[in-house]
Amino acid sequence: MTEYVVEASDDEFVLPITGFVCAGLEDGVVIDDAPVHVDLLLHNKDFTETARIRIADSAYRPRVLGLSERRAGVERAVATAESTLVLEFEGGEALEVPAGEYEAWEVEGPGLVKVIAPAGGGEPAIFDATSETRTIRPDEPLPRDLEAALKSFGLPRPTEAFELRRTTGRTKSIELRAATEQRED
Q1: Each residue's pLDDT tens digit, 72-87
Q2: The pLDDT of residue 28 is above 90
């Protein structure tokens, strides 16, 4: 698998989806006959890597549908320092999704890339191939910040091994995922 990295450039973060093609649309949970969010599905030209852009405002659905129907190619994709997602496509079309009161958008993929607009704006949370990742097993102590986060949300300690991943930028965030490796004693 290619090691994808989000590159910082001036006041922007370059997302590694240039050359990807819009391939489909998935609606989120439907409430009152409207999806809560809309997902733009993308893949690279040889179909070996995928990405998903989740937009929390379903008003973007007609534009996302049009891009996927045209199989529009991504020419440039950046997140600004204030968490506006800017996508430029072949033919000059662009899609901008500003930060909002909630997590307005999220890019997941390719590879280990995950970029999230924080509620209220500010620098996006960025995870990629350079993110610090460690596996924590049930018999190991939790890092203090994770222990405090679990306690503040009233969540129990995980009972299985899991991966703890930290952001690469100035926005401090963590992600917990199922462990991908098992330790041999």
Answers
A1: 999 999 999 999 999 9
A2: no
Tell me, yes or no, whether 14 and 77 share the same domain. Answer: yes
Q: Looking up tokens 């998935």, which residue turns up?
A: 26
For residues 33 and 68, membership in a common domain is answered with yes
- Domain presence at residue 169: yes
Mean pLDDT of 83-108: 94
User: Which tokens sit at 111?
Assistant: 């590879």
- Please state, rounded to an integer, the average pLDDT across all residues of the chain: 91
- Residue 185 pLDDT level (bands cut at 50, 70, 90): very low
DSSP state of 73: B
- Tell me if 95 is assigned to some domain: yes
Q: What token pair was written down for 168?
A: 């690469």
- What does DSSP assign to residue 160? S
Strand segments (E) across the chain: 7-9, 12-14, 21-27, 30-31, 34-35, 38-43, 50-55, 74-80, 85-89, 94-97, 105-108, 114-116, 125-127, 133-136, 162-166, 174-178
Q: Residues of 88-103 as b/e, b for ≥16 C-beta within 10 angstroms?
A: bbeeeeebebebeeeb
pTM: 0.87
Range of the domain at 166: 133-178
CB 38 within 8 A of CB 51: no
Do residue 161 and residue 107 come from a single domain?
no
Whether residue 34 has pLDDT greater than 80: no
84, 20: one domain: yes
